[in-house]
Design goal:
Length: about 240
């Protein structure tokens, strides 16, 4: 089963928040990011000395899995105009390449430029999560929540970390907080489905997967998990 994680969006779409929980989230992104690459490549050709097009092209390449090209573009953007969000984007690209220490360095550079950039702690937490250091990841997510209790992404990711620790009470607490912020978020409902299933609450899990599919009919993971639970309930006479 997969737990779905939050995306952080800054400067259109800047952050990637990916952590492992029963597997790696699979995103539907090919078409949109191919279009973004075409768009920002054209802007870069026309305005090669502007930082923002290089940065956004780099983000598009990151989402498309072209990490080395992404790093080159975002590095160019940082050299022109070293905004904090661009260091975060660069850190995300390095994280996707598996260079976690270099990624962490970029996140701390962003914080040195903007100490109140509280969302960056989510990205730092994701690095620790990739290392399997879930207590340290939780500590970083909590920093974001301390300064910004309304952070949907922090609630989703801290719930995932607690889920990996099998602390399902805290998992449910943060997922329900996330639902208060975004009641129809399909990733939150999916995560609730996985959590309820882990607790053996299969009717509750089934209800959550139905909510996912009402919003995202093409979600293959939710469809598969729903069918597995339906089969289990039929087999048990429920």
């Amino acid at each position: 089963m997969f737990i779905k994680t939050a995306h952080l969006r800054i400067e259109y779409i800047i952050f990637i928040a990916l952590i492992m929980f029963y597997g790696l989230l699979s995103h539907q992104r090919n078409t949109i990011w191919k279009n973004e690459i075409s768009l920002w490549s054209d802007v870069v050709r026309k305005s090669p000395q502007k930082a923002r097009p290089h940065s956004l092209l780099g983000v598009a390449y990151t989402f498309d899995g072209q990490i080395d090209t992404a790093i080159a573009e975002i590095t160019r953007a940082v050299s022109i105009e070293p905004y904090p969000v661009r260091y975060v984007a660069l850190g995300n690209a390095y994280r996707e390449k598996g260079l976690l220490e270099i990624a962490m360095l970029q996140y701390h550079k962003a914080l040195s430029l903007k100490p109140d950039f509280y969302d960056v702690y989510v990205n730092i937490g994701n690095v620790y999560a990739r290392k399997g250091l879930f207590d340290m990841a939780i500590s970083e997510y909590q920093k974001t929540l301390h300064f910004k209790p309304s952070s949907l992404d922090a609630h989703i990711n801290i719930a995932s970390a607690y889920g990996l620790k099998q602390d399902y009470d805290k998992t449910l607490h943060h997922l329900k907080k996330a639902l208060e912020l975004d009641p129809h978020n399909p990733d939150v409902h999916y995560n609730l489905g996985v959590t309820y299933s882990s607790l053996g609450l299969f009717h509750e899990a089934l209800s959550e997967y139905e909510k996912v599919l009402a919003v995202k009919p093409g979600d293959k993971d939710a469809f598969y998990n729903r069918e597995v639970i339906k089969t289990r309930l039929r087999y048990n006479g429920n």
